[in-house]
């Protein structure tokens, strides 16, 4: 570090769900070296309590901008001598840009996913105008994947020249060991192949496609780990269509217990930034089957670490799942390549180092 003074950073997220954006934000905040002091502005959520205390935290509204939040944040930033504001996600970006009109601090904006194709033409036009005008307030913009940056350019989003691509990263884990139980050996049969998906139960994750896929492969077990507003709808659909090979596990604190006892990871998302859930699955050596969308396509090396399939053709996902289920050597080959790729491109250590260098470069 070339800068000797402690740098104070305020990280802002307007997302009350512990999704990829907030998880990456807290991972970053907890891992920075002692040259940085980190504060958080985030909606109330009991899942966040382990990261927060009275001194490093200010509560803001979820997904809305209020005069009270603007006033309180300006005061908090001044009282704590914040040097850098780092906004994570669209809602936090709006709030941060407004308060920085008054403060003129260094402002970093991380997109964490661009969702233009999921909105109406009018909404997209308004968003592009907003980014063209207010995006100029940012000191620096960060994309969490190369495909996200390319998509922003293709969509004509104003991004200036002060940009970086810093891949999301996760902790390196031990590779998944091959486990065959005593009963399996004694009974001379192989356990059912298990496909796992870890996600919030929201429209973005396209969970209904997992059900459509599972219906076509009754010989394979599917595990859904997570929770969200679509939980009961998904549960009812499983009952209505008598899908017996999908199990709902709800929110789990340690998803790795489930990842280690699974064989394949599946993502059917409509869009992503750079999904931590896939990176975590890669970190234990699972082969990945994922929708070919921004973010997902950065994680999977098609035919090497797993397979990508087009969103409109989940029958291809069925084909790939069957292929992997029947070929243990192929699962092991792709799983090991997935394990290596995570360490090379998506490790937490590399991510933290790049952010530290970026923060330091402002002073």
Identify the notable features of this structure and list them briefly.
363 residues; alpha/beta; six-stranded parallel beta sheet; 13 strands; globular
Number of distinct beta strands? 13
Q: Helical region count?
A: 14
- Form type: globular
Proportion of strand residues: 15-25%
Alpha-beta content class: alpha/beta
Kindly report the average pLDDT value.
91
Whole-angstrom Rg:
21 Å
Residue windows where pLDDT falls under 50 for at least 5 positions:
180-190
Helix percentage:
40-55%
> Can you summarize the main beta sheet?
7 strands, parallel
Query: SSE order in H/E notation?
Result: EHEEHEHEHEHEHEHEHEHEHEHEHHH
Q: Within the largest sheet, what's the order of strands?
A: 3-2-1-4-5-6-7
Distance between the termini: 11 Å
Commentary on this structure:
With 363 residues, this protein is α/β, with parallel strands linked by helices. Helices cover 41% and strands 17% of the residues. The strands form two sheets. Strands 3-2-1-4-5-6-7 form a seven-stranded parallel β-sheet, sandwiched between helices. It has a six-stranded parallel β-sheet with strand order 10-9-8-11-12-13, sandwiched between helices.
Write the layout of secondary structure elements.
Layout lengths: L6 E6 L7 H12 L4 E7 L14 E3 L7 H13 L4 E5 L1 H14 L2 E5 L10 H14 L5 E4 L2 H9 L8 E3 L16 H6 L6 E5 L8 H9 L5 E5 L5 H10 L5 E5 L5 H4 L4 E4 L8 H8 L4 E4 L4 H4 L6 E4 L4 H13 L1 H18 L2 H14 L2
Parallel strand pairs: 1-2, 1-4, 2-3, 4-5, 5-6, 6-7, 8-9, 8-11, 9-10, 11-12, 12-13
Helix pairs in contact: 2-3, 7-12, 10-13
Can you summarize this structure?
It is built from 14 helices and 13 strands. The protein has 363 residues and is an alpha/beta fold.
